[in-house]
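Teaching note: in complex prediction, the entire set of molecules is handled at once rather than each chain in isolation. The prompt given to students was simply: 'Predict the structure of this complex.' The entities are:
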Amino acid sequence: MTSAAIDRATYDGLVESTGDEFVCELVDTFLAEAPRMLDELRDAYAKDDAERFRRAAHSLKSNANTFGALTLGRLARELELGGLAPIRSAAAAPIDAAASEYARVSQALEELTRG
Amino acid sequence: MADARGGRLLVVDDNKVNRLLLARNLELAGYRVAAAENGRVALAMLRDEAFDLLLLDIEMPEMDGFQVLDQVRGDLALRDVPVVVTSSLEGVDNIVRCIELGAEDYLTKPVNPVLLRARIGASLEKKRLRDQQKALVRRFAAPEVAQDLQQGGFSLGGKRVRASVLFSDIRGFTPLAEAQPPEETIELLNTYYTLMFDAIAGHGGIVSQIAGDGLMAIFGAPVALANHGAAAVQAALEMIEMMDLFSAEQAQAGKPPIRIGIGISSGEMVAGYTGTNARATYTCIGDIVNLAARLEAHTKEAQRSILIDEATRAMLDGIDAEPLGPVTVRGKTQAVEVFAL
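The expected output is the structure of the full assembly:
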């Protein structure tokens, strides 16, 4: 049993403090921006650009935590703090892990905002 | 706290989700919010319009938050704007670096909205108190002195300057004050000081002290003045002219005229802050200063409105001064050459 993609307490707190409609807009913004952050991670990895890699992971972490996507936040944090070297030895799998976790997160967020 | 709300804030964050969320939380708290996507844009906005507080992300392309903090602190016009850092950067050293660079507070992302409002409210309140203190300094000190204090900080002691000192007071003030209710005297003094301050400031001087009906003004310190002697004399002439106009108004209202006497001397003196660390005033000290006070006192005997010393006369160009010959003033062993205008 995997944990929920979105921590409901965090998400509900966000809705409570900023409003339904605003959170829908914010989710749309995140779903538009996050794929670009993942692309940036892959691109920086391919070009061996540690600074860009760290920055993209940092942004992803920050936004994931905002919506209560705690697992995605944790994976992004590991990328941010670990840098490029551990990913090389793992043949880039950690980026894929973040990408597939993001797929779960985006699906959960879409369900939450539609519901 | 009511006026701490409704302030104008600038949110700086390269991440769109963060930017929108911070702006939303602050708007819900009653603030007006503008946003910038990096440090370079933020600095341009800060220099263009007034903000009460800056909410700053650290990790940003083009110009990061550390660079913004550095620039804001180095800019006299911006350094009083409080900066609250919001970042998800890890490590105490990053927080320490922000505080050392002058950040008012540090909030970790994702920011708790309740904590955000409390910290912003507190920062704005502190800024309001600081603004109030600065306004007080401006009210009780000349603008040049207030600026000198803001730029150089306060320390007792002085430095040698070449300047001119002007003393003035109202002739026959005591009988005048006795003949009318104190409320009227206060009003009279306020009008008198308004006119005098204006004439003095208009010629680059600062009023260093006021006491009763007398005042002392300095020309050439704390800001150097090319021809301080001529500036002091011009101010004195304007003061007399103002009092003549005022006396004409007084006469129309059936009140007695107001006459003033002015003494001016020029030369080297020590200018700076005297008093204690708790209470001090910007003033000038030296023989030259005493001479100006004596000359002012001597206007009564000489039956002249303005008396100046030799050094001041030497600085005049195109203004005639009538030599009154050597006069022995109190506190001086040797007679001094005195000139009347």
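Point out the following to students. Residues 8-114 of chain A form a domain with the Four Helix Bundle (Hemerythrin (Met), subunit A) fold (CATH 1.20.120). Chain A has one domain: 8-114.
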